[in-house]
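Subject: for your reference before the review

Hello V.,

The reviewers asked for a structural picture of the protein, and I figured it would be easier to keep everything in one thread rather than splitting it across files. Below is the amino acid sequence we used in the manuscript, unchanged from the supplementary table.
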Amino acid sequence: MFKSLEKRSLSHRIIDEIRDYIVQQKLKPGDRLATETEMAEALAVSRASVREAVKVLEAIGVLESSPKRGINVKEFAPEQFFRYLLFDPYVAVESIVDMAELRLAFEVG
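And here is what came back from the structure prediction:
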């Protein structure tokens, strides 16, 4: 039981590292990231942990990966992100509604 919590924390740390890298390097859709192996070595974690984080980022529409093309930044689609949140047991429905209202406020002005 506690191992899954530790794994979740590690996955979130890796996701944060990838996000920070994308922002700091000002990467755009189509820009390539390092391989899973290279990220694992740089972060001193297993390749499986990196793969798990990449899969989450693919699910919410931030990254896309393919065997021949590697891992690339994808144009962010907020709708895909919100659909993912509906399946995350750690996110309350109320917080999703709050995020949607916040997004609407920004878009409408």
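For the response letter, the relevant points are probably these. The CA atoms of residues 36 and 51 lie 6 Å apart. The mean pLDDT is 77.

Happy to draft the paragraph if you're swamped.

O.
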